[in-house]
Design goal:
It is built from two helices and nine strands, in the order H-E-E-E-E-E-E-E-E-E-H. By secondary structure, the chain is mainly beta. Strands 1-3-4-5-6-7-8-9 form an eight-stranded antiparallel β-barrel. The N terminus is likely disordered.
């Protein structure tokens, strides 16, 4: 729900820059992103995460899947790329199509903190199989 909230917050202000300088979707500097991430905590704009499951899977081919529960199972899909400081996600299947840029505030091989317009989210890497049961 956190990523959907971030998507909704930016649906009117999302930027769709085509500047490919330093984009590395799946390249050496962004390989730590490849895999499945669980949103463990989010806050901002007067809310805190409610603990519902939400997963984001970055694939090495430059695509992603976001799976969450928002009045039922909600899945979005798109393309991603990254620089050393940002993740750019272009939603091509879902309710709020557009391009969204997330700032990488901190990361390790197993955790990442993202920020966008006053919302901060903490994600932890989980096995890819974690979301398989939802995608069938």
């Amino acid at each position: 729900m956190m990523l959907a909230t971030m998507f909704a917050a930016l649906s009117l202000t999302a930027c769709g820059g085509d500047d490919d300088d330093d984009e590395i979707g799946g390249g050496d500097s962004s390989t730590f992103l490849i895999g499945t991430w669980s949103v463990t905590y989010a806050q901002g704009w007067g809310f805190e995460s409610d603990g519902e499951a939400e997963y984001l899977q970055f694939k090495s081919d430059g695509t992603y899947i976001n799976m969450q529960f928002d009045d039922g199972l909600y899945i979005t899909k798109g393309n991603w790329s990254a620089t050393d400081t940002e993740i750019i996600m272009k939603e091509i299947e879902g309710k709020i199509l557009g391009t969204y840029t997330y700032r990488i505030l901190n990361h390790t091989e197993s955790s990442i903190t993202l920020g966008m317009w006053g919302i901060t989210a903490n994600l932890t890497k989980v096995p890819d199989s974690t979301i398989d049961k939802y995608l069938k």
